[in-house]
Amino acid sequence: MDWKLIVSGAVIGLLVGFTGVGGGALMTPILLLVFGIAPMAAVGTDLWFAAMTKLFATPVHQRHGLIDWQVVKRLWTGSLTASVLTLTWLHFNPIDEDSVHLLKGAVAITVIFTAIAMLFQKQLHALGRTNRITSGVQFKAVQGPLTIAAGAFLGILVTFTSVGAGALGAVFLVYLYPLRLTPPRLIATDIVHAIPLAIFAGTGHLLLGNVDSSLLGNLLLGSVPAVIVGALLSARLPHAYLRIALVIVLLAAGGKLFWTLL
């Protein structure tokens, strides 16, 4: 047992329960920067960490009827297909020592991009709401295809870096479903979509030897009870302030990781 890992897992678990964000966007940089885990092991282990952590939050949200299953299925159509194709590519083009810096750079850029996207989440929601109200028929006609396309983008990104399923998924959904998804429903739907995606991608990385079971066990010891507490409190928390705090932390983590590559 490593208490530093357990505490790290608990902190991220709380954030995931509160906001649906943090499973990959924060844990992967922590594993790389704080614990010095090899990049591919960090990505592979974090995928399983995110999947198992969010799995324990799902029953809480389901009991409150917060999950929009139609939106989830649309996202899965794109993300799971893209994940399988990306894993196939990784099988024939494995990440070696020469491309490790590229992987770290991809994680850093994705984390920074995620933070910037979250920073403008409110504006995207307002834009989506305006389009939905003023051009309702046209907007609804493209909702499905755009949701599938967003899922495909997330599938590729998450499989490569383990980052984006929660944070970027939420950003896409606030624009695409501005009237349908309230903040608690958005969090619940985003979390449920991320679980099979992380399992798909995580299974591929497991077969490639990129999952550290001891590391994963310590992280889950902290995250599992914490994510349940976070999910129970989610509907009562000020999400705007939590989002700002997350943006600051993500920018700091992404910037620090990028700086180490210079």
Written overview of the protein:
The structure is a single chain. This protein has helices at 3-19, 27-33, 39-63, 69-92, 100-119, 121-134, 136-161, 167-176, 183-207, 213-233, 239-259. It has 262 residues and is mainly alpha-helical. It has one domain. The longest helix has 26 residues, at 136-161. The radius of gyration is 17 Å and the shape is globular. 50% of the residues are buried. The mean pLDDT is 88.
Topology (elements, then pairings):
Blueprint: H1 3-19, H2 27-33, H3 39-63, H4 69-92, H5 100-119, H6 121-134, H7 136-161, H8 167-176, H9 183-207, H10 213-233, H11 239-259
Helix pairs in contact: 1-10, 2-3, 2-11, 3-9, 3-10, 4-7, 4-9, 5-8, 5-11, 6-7, 6-8, 7-8, 8-9
Quick summary:
Helices cover about 80% and strands about 0% of the residues.
Residue stretches low in confidence (pLDDT < 50, at least 5 long) are none
Query: Biggest sheet: strands, sense, closure?
Result: none
Taken from the alpha-carbon principal axes, the silhouette is globular
User: Percent of residues in helical segments?
Assistant: over 70%
Radius of gyration: 17 Å
CA-CA gap between termini: 34 Å
**Mean of residue pLDDT values:** 88
* Helix vs. strand class: mainly alpha
Number of beta strands: 0
Topology pattern, helix = H, strand = E? HHHHHHHHHHH
The total tally of domains equals 1
Number of helices: 11
As a percent range, the share of strand residues is under 5%
